[in-house]
Amino acid sequence: MAISLMSSSRNGIVASTMINGTRSGEKTVLTVTMNPSVDITYPLDFLEINGVNRVAQAIKTAGGKGLNVTRVLNQLGDIVLATGLIGGSLGAQIKKELRGLNIETDFFEIAGDTRNCIAILHEDQQTELLESGPTVTLTESQAFLAHFNMLLKRAKLVVISGSLPKGVPNDYYVAMIECCQNQGIPVILDCAGENLKAVLTGNYKPLLIKPNNVELAEIMALPVSKDESVLTEWLSNPLFRNIEWVIVSLGSKGALVKHNEQMYRVIIPKIEVKNPVGSGDSTIAGLASAIIAHESDEGILKKANTLGMLNALEEQTGQVNMKNFDSIYKEINIEKI
Ligand code: TA6
Q: Rounded CA gap, 77 and 23, in Å?
């Protein structure tokens, strides 16, 4: 039995005793990763296309967006339970890593093999190779829904992140949100493409979505834009009507945010980026953490963007160094539009 004590701070870390990753009786943030992966990061000075590249130090971590969110929530001291579909030797590797971090998991085992996703960091750029992952059978996806419903009893907030694996219907997240709504549990959803479109046109809505400007343009079927007035106009589309929070990430340009009828501009400082992969997931962890702590809009947006930036300062995907939290936090400005 692992026991650890946490100290109190503004960063949302609360004093409590933790036993095997959970505090008895307390509700948890339930993270869902339907298509996890063992993420591999290859740092290279230079990527030789059509040549041989030798990697001095490969970094391998439990990944897929939801597991990055999970790791950062755990670093913040929030109670988190990770679920999703998992299989094969990479699935076992993920479970082992999370166990080592004292993170509670309750995955649903499938016959297919969990995938790898590769990020090559080279010449201030990142090139990602994302395997599509296993094909999931209808029986498996239906059984997972029952498993998920059972876990909801313990949840105060659900965070669903990333792509759906092959074989799972595009509107599967709508069914998951319906389950949450039936139990009065809010959902943060971070997905793109057809999976997001199905939710935007479906009957059950999440509390929060976080498309980037490219994903938003795809939804609108319009050319990509970072123009504030263009994005504001897009967010007034009825597609976003019953979603309380829409956070449009703009990379180094910060974010544009709609919270109900209020629009915000998030201005972030310039930083020396080491690895931006997983920054969106760390931002989601910050949103979840601040929302369950009932922080103000400004507090929610500052915490989320601070964590996204802290991730970019680290080489490892989905990892933050909380020592730098305060210095970044005070450099972030939230303006009402
Ligand atoms: O956000 C980065 C990342 O989370 C990587 O960890 C990688 O596993 C990938 O995204 C997965 O994204 P997907 O949308 O395919 O689930």
A: 11
